[in-house]
Each structure stands twice: as structure tokens, then as C-alpha cells.
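Moderator note: this is an archived Q&A kept for reference. The question asked for a predicted structure of one protein chain; the sequence and the answer are reproduced below.
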Amino acid sequence: MRATPIVAAVAGGVLYFLGYIGWGVWPCIFVFLVPLWCGLDAVAHEGLGRTLVLGLVFGLAAYAGGFSWLWYLVDAFLEGSRTAGAALWLAYGLWFAAGFAVYAAAFRAIRRRGWSVATAGVPSLVVLEWLQPALFPVNAGTALMPVPLFVQTADLGGPLLLTALAGGANVACFETWAWWRGRRSRPLGTWLAAVATAFAVFGYGVVRTADVERAAAAAPAFTVGLVQPNLGVMEKRTQSVRTHEAHVILTRELLAAGPVDLVVWPETAYVRGLRRPLPLSGRPVLQDLAVPLLFGGSSVREEDGRRLATNSALLVGADGMIRDVYDKNLLIPFAEYVPMAGLVPGLARLFPHVQAFDASTDTPALHLGSWRLATPICYEVARPDFVRRMVRTSRPHVLVALANDAWFGDSQEPWIHLALARLRAVEHRRFLVRATNSGVSAIVDPNGRTVARTDLLARATLRGTVRVLEGETVYARWGDWVGWVSLAFVVLAFAVRR
């Protein structure tokens, strides 16, 4: 294969990870597909294998820069085994890149049937993001989170709509580049469509932001306090008494500065295993504290004679009793369970720190008086489909996300995790409270703006006011309609030759 298409594919992958949240050079997301599309058009009349290679190279380049933070898990999960870490990192990278190989093949097939780059390139990308199973979901449009006005349409179509809009910008840049190189006539129609879309997105952002601000200003409010102890991962697991005491001490410091209506501790703040069923006394957790407390902890229950442990969010009410619990639904492979451990002998021994949690399927709200709180735990807030299901089931007034990102140290992951949580606030127009062990803890308004936050890897407390909002957004009601529309375009393009 000629070197130029390969270089173009690598350049596109580099632009992708530079534009994404961790690196934050967000304008790159408006052009990251242009080099790939140029390369794919250049090899359109060669063998299919060349097209697949370009897609794979693009995906590997994007993965290498965008998922470098996964290396922090080698010490935490694999006790420093670089061989096992490299094998898992590469395996996931090949899966990620394989999606773009399929994308490249779809792009080639649709282009060969006479359709434009817009039809071949944008719906196929949306369908890829929508349908490819991924442990850590990536939506290109999420890269726009640093500019809140650009992401307000997420309450209409979620992250897939943002990706479609970013893809449209890439189409305008591609057609402009082709015209500049003398390969196309002046793309006036494309330019007009791009300008009209940009004005519509910007106008919607301005109007919707103002509407939400007015609704929030008129809504009831309560004061929340967050505790971030910044404990090491192994400290939290092996020194339960010290871990608990660190949270209690920080809470006393928080309350000494003034009262709050609710204190929130992060994921796995209390790891001594509360025995259910509910209700049960929360005094062993509260000690001398006199404040409602929402905290992450492990809890144990018996079901059909089996002892089941869960990663849970629990709420101690004003009377000191725990009546509400949410058990995590989406468990993280190799951290909270080992896939296929029963089928592959010795597999579990490769992951000495894995915890055997049971996954729930229910998404109940926790109740602070008459207010309902939805509490996605850790990775769950990164899944827009799951949070949407949780919101539709529990009808929360506020989102409260609990996490422990200490696994990833001083990497890009905590900032990526925060940005994804912020997008959930926009999608459902709710205040979001995020309590983490090591940062970044934050309070986010319904327009996705960070009202207050802590520093990363810092012992800290945070307080702020959240507003209690109701109502259902278009995205909450209709979900991933953008994915269905894009799939229809792809099917049409394969069925009809222009």
C-alpha cells in the first residue's frame, strides 16, 4: 500500500485522541475524519484489504493515545505484570480498532454505490458508536464538553446527536479541502448547510441554557457537602477502620464550617459489609454525626441460601436508619467479577484484587425526604443508555454519582470520567453531584457547567447548593433515535445505488 493513505489514517487517529476529552484540543474533532476519508477515497479502487487496513490503523492510532491511561491499572489489578497488562491492553485496542475497520469497509461500499461522503461517513460512525459493544464507550461528540453551549442539544439526542453534528462539521471541512485541491466544484450547498446548522446549535444552546437557568432559580434547593479523603486503593480495601474514620473526620470538618442538608461520601467509603435486609441502623456508619448521609459501601444479603455481596449506595436518613439502597448493575470486568472464570481454569488467579460482587437489575431511587436521588456508581455514569434507564425508572430530582478513580492516579481518566458525568446532567437537565475518593469531586448544573470542584489527588471537602428539578427531556423519552435514523440511512445507502 502507498505510504500516503497510511499516513493519513494515522493523522486522523491522532486528531481523534487529541480532540477527545483527555487531551482536550477539542477543535480537532471537527477535522479528525478528513484525513481518513481522503485515504479511503485514495484506495477505493484497490482491494478491500487495503481499506480494512486503513480503518484498523486509524483505530489503533486513536486508541494508543486515547487509552494510555489504562496502563495505570497494571499495578492496581495485575500487581505489576507488564506482560498480562500489555496483552489485555492490546486485545482491547484491537477490538476498538476492528470497529473502525468495519466502518472503513462500510464507507467504501456506500461510496462505491454513488453516495456522498456525508452519507457514507456520518451515519456509519453513529451506528458504530451505537452498536459496537465497548467496556469504555467513546462518542466523538463528547469532545465538545469544554464548550457547554455546543452540547446543549444532548437533551434532544444524547451523545449520538453530538457525534452526528461533529461529523457534519467534518463533511464541510472535507468538501472544502477537496475544492481547495481542485477536485470538487465550490461546495456552496455544504457551506450553507454547515452555517445554518452552526447557528441552530448555537442558538439552541443560548435559549435552552437561559430556560434551564430560569427553571433552576425557581426550584426548591438544598445544601450538599462532599467528602474526598484521597485514600489509596489498597488502603480502602485492607484498612476498613482507618478508611471509615478518615471519612468521619473530614465530615466533622465540613460540618464545623456550617450545616448541610446531605453529606455524600464516595464509592466504597464503608467496606465492612453491612448486613441486610433493610431497614437497619446507620449508627455504626454515622457515629456521632447528626446529618443525613449518602455513602458507597459493600452490603451483604442472603438469597436462596446464597450469600451475595454488592457494591451499593445507601442513604442514612435523619432518624439514623438506612431504608434505601441501590445496588450496582454494571460491574467492571476483572475488578468486580472475572468473566468466564468458571470456564477458564486459573483465570481468576491472574487478577488477585478482583472482588466477587453480585450485579443487580433494579434501579430504585434513594429518598431524602420527598426528594428522589438517582445514584449511578462509578463506571455506570459513563453509560448514557444505562443512566437514561435509571432516570426513567427512578424519576430523580437530582443525580448523585459515586466513584473511586484512585485506580488511575494522576492520569486523564478522572477528567474524562467527570466530563461524561457532566454530559448526563445535560441529557436529563438535572443537577449532578459527584463524590469521589481521590478526585475530581464536583457539583454540576443542568447545563453541564461545573459549579464547584475539588482538585485531583487532594484531601478535601466541598459544599454547594443544588436545585430540585423535574420533567423529562426528549432524550430521556426517545433515547437513541439518532442511532435508528442513522441505521436507516446506512441500510438505504446499501440498498439503493445513486
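Archived answer notes: The chain has a mean pLDDT of 94.
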